[in-house]
């Protein structure tokens, strides 16, 4: 959920800056049109350049650009922190047209998959409050793991592993889907991500029944 709040903050700040710039440009355009409405065309200025005004303009643009680059890089760092010393590892494989979630560190070597037809959607089970590292790859074409409600999205490529680190701070269930067109049944390629209390997760990882 931390990613969701960070994304919301970035969107709000950058949208406010974009809106302010748009209104400023619109205001200057309206002022110019109203000022010269119905008047004769102004005579050409004797000065060919205005270096001081141009310097202010370039400085303002550079300041905005520098702020946006630095702000975005900082928030991206916050959104994707380095994994802790021992995160829970889940190997995620996308294929046409569903998902497989493997837990190599679990005592029972848990593996979850499905067909993504009807209600047969696999569930990615994770413990609430614990850092989880997803290692994504694809068995065939490019897929994209996307959880709209949590604002997590990472591509899955064949012969390549992408890493996504997440921490869900409360129990709950969210629907995920493939966000990269991957063929005929792309629209059915959905899954569930379910955060459960740590004790419930430990029982399930040791071979117990699926957490309620």
TrEMBL record:
Top-rank taxon, per record: Bacteria
Keywords: Copper, Electron transport, Membrane, Metal-binding, Transmembrane, Transmembrane helix, Transport
Pfam assignment, any one: COX2
Gene3D superfamilies noted in UniProt: Cupredoxins - blue copper proteins
Transmembrane segments: 6-34, 55-74
PROSITE patterns the UniProt entry points to: COX2, COX2_CUA
Family according to the record: Belongs to the cytochrome c oxidase subunit 2 family.
Full protein name: Cytochrome aa3 subunit 2
Organism, as annotated: Streptomyces lavenduligriseus
């Amino acid at each position: 959920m931390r990613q969701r709040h960070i994304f919301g903050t970035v969107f709000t700040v950058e949208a406010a800056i974009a809106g302010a710039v748009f209104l400023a440009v619109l205001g200057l355009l309206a002022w110019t049109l109203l000022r010269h409405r119905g008047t004769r065309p102004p005579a050409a200025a004797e000065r060919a350049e205005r270096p001081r005004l141009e310097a202010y303009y370039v400085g303002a643009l550079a300041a905005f650009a520098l702020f946006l680059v630095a702000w975005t890089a900082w928030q991206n760092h916050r959104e994707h922190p380095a994994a802790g010393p021992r995160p829970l590892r889940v190997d995620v494989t996308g294929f046409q047209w569903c998902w497989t979630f493997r837990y190599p560190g679990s005592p029972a070597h848990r593996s979850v998959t499905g067909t993504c037809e009807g209600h047969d959607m696999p569930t990615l089970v994770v413990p609430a409050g614990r850092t989880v590292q997803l290692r994504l790859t694809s068995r065939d074409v490019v897929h994209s793991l996307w959880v709209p409600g949590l604002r997590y999205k990472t591509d899955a490529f064949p012969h390549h592993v992408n890493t996504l680190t997440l921490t869900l701070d409360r129990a709950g269930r969210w629907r995920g889907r493939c966000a990269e067109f991957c063929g005929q049944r792309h629209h059915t390629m959905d899954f569930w991500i379910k955060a459960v209390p740590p004790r419930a997760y430990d029982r399930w990882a040791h071979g117990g029944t699926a957490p309620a």
